[in-house]
Amino acid sequence: MKILLLSSEEIRGAISMAEAIEAVREAFILVSKKKVIVPPRTHIDLEIHRGTSLIMPTYFPGREKIGVKIINLYERNPQLGLPLSFALMLVFEARNGSPLALLEASTLTAIRTGAASGLATDLLARKDARVAAIFGAGFQGRYQLEAVNAVRPLYKVYIYDSDFEKSRIFAQEMSSKLNLDIIVASTPEEACKEAEIICTATTSSSPVFPDSAIKVGIHINAIGSYKPHVREIPSATVARSRIFVDQREAALEEAGDLIIPLKEGVITEDSIVAEIGEVAAGEKPGRLSDEEITFFKTVGLAAQDIALASRILEAAERLSLGHSFPL
Ligand SMILES: NC(=O)c1ccc[n+]([C@@H]2O[C@H](COP(=O)([O-])OP(=O)(O)OC[C@H]3O[C@@H](n4cnc5c(N)ncnc54)[C@H](O)[C@@H]3O)[C@@H](O)[C@H]2O)c1
Fold first, then answer.
1. Which atom belonging to ligand 1 lies closest to the Cα atom of 232?
2. CA distance 293 to 197
3. What is the pLDDT of residues 139-155, one digit of tens each?
């Protein structure tokens, strides 16, 4: 018996953002059709260490894989010079239960989370949207930008982070990587002024821009919050948006961006127009006019991880990537 070990670099080399977007499209459609088994994830709160461990199991019948990802998110890590999160994913063959691979899963998570916003942007943003604002110049923010640029080739990008130096490094790195004009915004208002697409990928627990700052017709992807009391988007913006989610149950359980406005009574559960998989499958409409605001909230699903991991394993076999270890 053997297991394949795949590093972050090998994962990046195995799949393009366009392919990742196709993988999450497949995952979200199957989630909405209730064809993937995605039990609610287990949160273990490690208050003493200001950390959370998320344990995310899934069975993906489409590609006959079982997976479990563990992602540990530690609030204080960035101050200690460590990444906010560490993650690993184990993949098993579903036909006989045998182990297949162990993947570095921080990169996997960032790619699939970027891909979710890429898919939502493709389905919901105005076709002529070309200016984006990214909130959060961290690990996720980079993949958010790459994914949005893959579906709406951008001509201008604003980056805003509460840490100016992080924004500056982001702009330098990503402008040469993606050949884009990236402007470091000094305020959230400046970042929003021209933006037609916004991605929020911060660790903030309160709204990162004021409702008055955004233009009509904008599309927003909010990926940062995954706890009921934490949010990035103001209630007033949520209340005047058409709302789309990755999965209703997960959003109502974890997404502070929706749970807080629900508690305030400014939206109801019926305000959630659709799961993104329903839009991707053509079962529900997306954007209805150029003037409306569309809002995609994702807390992240194990189905995205296994869909991406399955394709990465196929590519790894084709390209002879990774190291195989006897068990
Ligand atoms: N939805 C999902 O599927 C998903 C997946 C992975 C991570 N996440 C979440 O995404 C968030 C970002 O993760 P990361 O790995 O990029 O973290 P990170 O620490 O690398 O980056 C977060 C950035 O947000 C900035 N920030 C904090 N408050 C801000 C504010 N008010 N305005 C602007 N910037 C602000 C920080 O300075 C930092 O640069 C985390 O909360 C993480 O839990 C969500």
1. 31
2. 10
3. 999 999 999 999 999 99
